[in-house]
Each structure stands twice: as C-alpha cells, then as structure tokens.
Specification:
It is a single chain. By secondary structure, the chain is mainly α. The chain is built from 19 helices and four strands. Strands 1-2 form a two-stranded antiparallel ribbon. A two-stranded antiparallel sheet has the order 3-4. α7 runs antiparallel to α10. The protein is elongated, with a radius of gyration of 31 Å. It starts with 14 loop residues before the first helix and ends with a helix.
Length: about 450
C-alpha cells in the first residue's frame, strides 16, 4: 500500500526500518475511531466550502462502507500498511478514486492520531465506568445482606476490634466509588478535540474546529496546537487511575486469599473461580484472586512506561509517542478483565458467618470497649488503658477471654468494675454502640447504605 509521505524520498525504505516504524499491528484496533474522526473532518470541510457537497457525500459513503465492511468481516485490514490511517485512506481512494485523496485536507497524521487515541481512551473510560458500576452494585447488595454479620477487624493482620462484614465491604465501596469518580474527572478534563492542530502549528485552511469538536462529542477544541498533538496527560491520568483500581482489587484479593485459607475459613470461593493441583487432589486454589493480584504489576508497568517515554520529549510531536499504545492497550484490557472477573468471583463467594462470628469473639477484640467502660466509670483513659492491658496479659496466661473473668477477678484490677461489664463488652454491644457516621453500628450502616443507594442512582 502506498505511503502517505513518499514524495520527499528517492530511495525505498529499508524493510526492517519500515516494519520497526509501522504501527498497524496495534493501532488497527482504533479503526472505528479513525473513521469516525474522518467523517467529522469531512463534514466540517464541506461546511466550510473546502470540499463540495458531492465530494463530501462520496467520501462519507466511502468511509461508511469501509467501516461496515470491516465490522462485518467483508474487509480485512491489510497489515502491510504503515498504520490504520494509511489503510483507511488508501482503501477509500481505491474505492472512490481521486476524490479520496482530499480526505486529508487540513489535517496531519499528528493531530489525526492524537484524536484517535483520545477517542479510543474516552470509549475505554466509559467501558471501565460500566464495569465499576456493576462491581459497586454487587458490593452494595452484599453490604445490605450482611449488616449483622459479625467479624473481627484487623490492624497489622492482628485482631483489633469487632465489626461487621457490611462495614468491611463498605471500605471497598468507598474505594471503588472514588475510582468511578476519577473516571468522570479524567473524561471531563480530556474532552477537548485536537483535530485541526495540524502537525503542530494549525493550518491555513479556514477550519471550524468547534464544529468538528461538537460532531465528535467534545466540549470544544484544544486551545494550543502544539499541546494538541503532543498531550498524553489524559492517558497518563487514565493509566494512573487504572493502577489505583488494580491496587484496590489486589488488596481485596489478598484478603479473600487469606480468608479462604484453612486457618481462617471465612469464605469459600466458588469452584467456577478456583482451580486444582496437578499432584495434590485435595487442593482448591484461589487462582483468579492470585492472578488479579499478580496482573496489578502489569498495569503499573504500563503507567511507568508512558511516564518514562514522555519525560524527556521536547515539543511538539515525536515518534517516541507511538510507544503510548501497545502497553496502554494491554493495560486497558487487563484492568477491564480483572474488574469483570473479580465481580463474578465476588458474586459467587459464600461467607461463613459462624466462623467469622467465632473469630470475632477471640483475640480480645473487646479490650478497647472494656477500657471505654472504665472511662465512663470515671477512670482516666491512660489508667484504663493500663488496667485493660494487665487484664489481657492475665487472660492470655489463663487462656481465657476477657468475658470469661468473674466479677471478683475484674475487681482485682479495678473497683470500678460492676456487673454491667459483661453487657458492655459483649460482641453485640461492641458493634451496636458504634453509632457515628462511618462506624459499623447497624444504624450508621443503614444510613451509609442509603447514601450509597442514592449515589448509585445518580451515577
């Protein structure tokens, strides 16, 4: 297929150089965005009198036919072409003749590829938003189901205080809500059209860039042509946001992996999201959770790659920027696949409520509440903290829970203890009396769930 830039050259490009320079093997995935961008460009050229209506109609029909034929499988992309832009324009010219060569009027491949990548990334942001919304809906449903499912909360992987599964899941609800809102922020910030920037300095043709932008659903044209062709901030932001999503998924997967162990037995992962061992017949491994945790580094790598690529580039466009695509596309696919798989795994998980409850009653998770009890009896907090610390050591040596002590044993440590200590440090009381917004008490959780319900409806 003929090059778009051959006129200046008197010698053939070395085949190795051509293949090294070509991008069709990966930029072919945004054929739709390329054609949609060209359709808008041609309509604008005709509006401005740069093309006739007849020329516009011929080109529009030709481009529409190419798009339909690619999507139906009637037309196969020629991977000997240099890039998707060359393939589309060359195919158009083959089909409609010389008028097809007018497609590129007032446009450079620099602003064309900048547009295609923006359009493609914008579509991917919407895809990720839809997947996050589905995951958030799953978490929200589980939160409503488990307001009264008690479990231990942890710090340093040590049992800390009792809470509920609803409250624990609510932490991830907040994380993924922020991830969703980051998608909205990136979309808003990136939604300006670079087409019309030319190679770097605009064009002498009387283009209506605002019209082109409106046809493509942008909020307006970019305001600097050099930035228009060399901006990849939106891509870096998107990869950063995907990295944060993967970090959240990885943290959740780590907990599921731990909870799935024989030692914890808090959850049972469905057979459909587990695998076995080739040698140990009893094994049921949480491979999907482990792979999501592992693929997090893959998305981080894409972010680091584009940051390193962009850090030393002078204005405006440089060929280095072609490296923004392959790893980014892989990161897009990886993140979407991981969100989708995680949501499916979470939907199918069985939570062992009895095991969680039993675990919450051990590990002295009510020690803080015992200290608060003494404070309410007039004991200074620092003294109360010391007394309960001594009681904990006593119970460890006796191999019993704080609740198991007799009132006489309590009084050996402080005369402030009364019969009501047992109700004050019961698991139910420890959770239910935490009523401030954001705490695990049922009243607080019900309010948070209402807020989340409103958030899901608004988004």
């Amino acid at each position: 297929m003929a090059k778009l830039w051959g006129g200046r050259f008197t010698e053939e490009t070395d085949s190795l150089v051509y293949n090294f320079n070509a991008s069709i093997s990966f930029d072919s995935r945004f054929y739709r965005q390329d054609i949609c961008g060209s359709l808008a460009h041609v309509k604008m050229l005709a509006k401005q009198g740069i093309l006739t209506e007849e020329e516009k109609n011929l080109i529009v029909d030709g481009l529409t036919g190419i798009l339909n034929d690619i999507e139906s499988g009637k037309l196969e992309i020629d991977y000997t072409a240099e890039d998707i832009h060359s393939f589309v324009e060359g195919t158009l010219t083959d089909r409609i003749g010389t008028v097809g060569k007018k497609l590129h009027t007032g446009r450079s491949r620099n602003d064309q590829v900048a547009l295609d990548m923006k359009l493609y990334t914008r579509d991917e942001i919407n895809n990720v938003k839809a997947l996050l919304k589905e995951l958030l809906t799953t978490i929200h449903r589980l939160m409503k189901e488990h307001i009264n499912t008690y479990m231990p909360g942890f710090t340093h992987l040590q049992k800390a205080q009792p809470l509920t599964l609803s409250h624990h899941l609510g932490a991830y609800m907040e994380m993924f809500k922020r991830d969703y809102e980051r998608m909205c922020d990136i979309y808003r910030r990136m939604n300006y059209c670079p087409l019309g920037s030319g190679a770097l300095a605009g064009t002498t043709y009387p283009l209506d860039r605002a019209y082109t932008a409106s046809l493509l659903g942008f909020d307006g044209p970019t305001l600097n042509s050099m930035d228009g062709v060399s901006d990849r901030d939106y891509l870096i932001e998107f990869l950063s946001a995907l990295s944060i999503i993967m970090m959240h998924l990885s943290r959740f997967c780590e907990e599921i992996i731990i909870w799935n162990t024989n030692e914890y037995q808090f959850v049972e992962i469905s057979d459909t999201y587990s695998t076995g061992s080739s040698i140990m017949p009893q094994k049921k491994n949480p491979d999907i959770a482990e792979l999501i945790r592992g693929k997090t580094g893959r998305v981080y790598g894409a972010l680091n790659s584009i940051l390193v690529t962009m850090k030393g580039l002078p204005l405006a466009y440089n060929k280095d920027m072609q490296e923004d695509k392959e790893l980014s596309f892989d990161a897009f696919d990886t993140a979407k696949g991981c969100i989708r798989l995680f949501d499916g795994m979470l939907k199918s998980i069985k939570f062992n409520k009895d095991r969680m409850y039993s675990s919450a009653t051990g590990g002295y998770t009510n020690a803080t509440d015992a200290a608060d009890y003494l404070v309410l009896k007039g004991v200074p907090f620092r003294d109360a903290h010391k007394i309960i610390g001594e009681i904990t050591v006593y119970c460890i040596n006796k191999n019993c829970a704080i609740d198991d002590l007799t009132l006489d044993e309590f009084k050996k440590f402080s005369e402030a203890f009364e019969e009501d200590i047992y109700d004050a440090i019961s698991l139910d009381t420890c959770v239910r009396k935490r009523l401030t917004i954001g705490a695990p008490g049922p009243d607080s959780m019900s309010r948070v769930i209402e807020i989340n319900e409103e958030w899901l409806e608004e988004n």
